[in-house]
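Continuing the series of single-chain predictions for the mutant panel. This is the parent chain; the variants come on the following pages.
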Amino acid sequence: MEFRDDVFLGITVVVNVLAIYFALFIAPAEVALGELVRVFYFHLPQAIVCYLTLVISLVGAVLFLRTKQAKYDAISESAALLGLVYGMITLVSGSIWANAAWGVYWNWDPRETTTLVLWLAYVGYFFLRMSVENPERRASVSAAYNVLAFLTVPLSYMSFIIWPSLHPRLSEGGGLGLTGTMVQALLLNILGGLLFYVWIIRKTYGVRLTKDELERKLSEEVRIAG
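Parent structure:
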């Protein structure tokens, strides 16, 4: 069955509107955190998508190193770009949470710090891509760097387990005891975030393929004219 972008986008919009409504109006305030818990419904899904898209970027990089097929480099770069965007959203929403919960926007908590390191590592990925002119070499060097940069992802995820951290956990002892309605709101926002991610990465990947095709045609025209 043919994938319908318009239908998928419509479903995505409905799910996200419902998710936002649940997060803001249906889910109750948390006992200790009060209304601040609503930030969590938007912060956690962005963090999940950030990790997910960097996993996809890693897979694309590994597949490119094995096959040298340009489509895998396109997937890897597209996913890394979205990883940067979602990483920034995660950092900003986390800072809002930190200011409300701890009184400062940034306190070098292990999760905050390692997520910033992750984000900077992938900023370096794009600086590297921009510094290499040859397309084949650029793809190969970037893929190798991507594999190394991915080490920051498990470091960020495990940071609040490895080191003492104020970062809340989804458990009774960790400071976030969620009721059934809270869990529903959280799951809806995670689902909505994942649906939107699927839609946007398809568009990002399509733009990258179009760019590659235009560059190929331009190169051929220059070669023929020369």
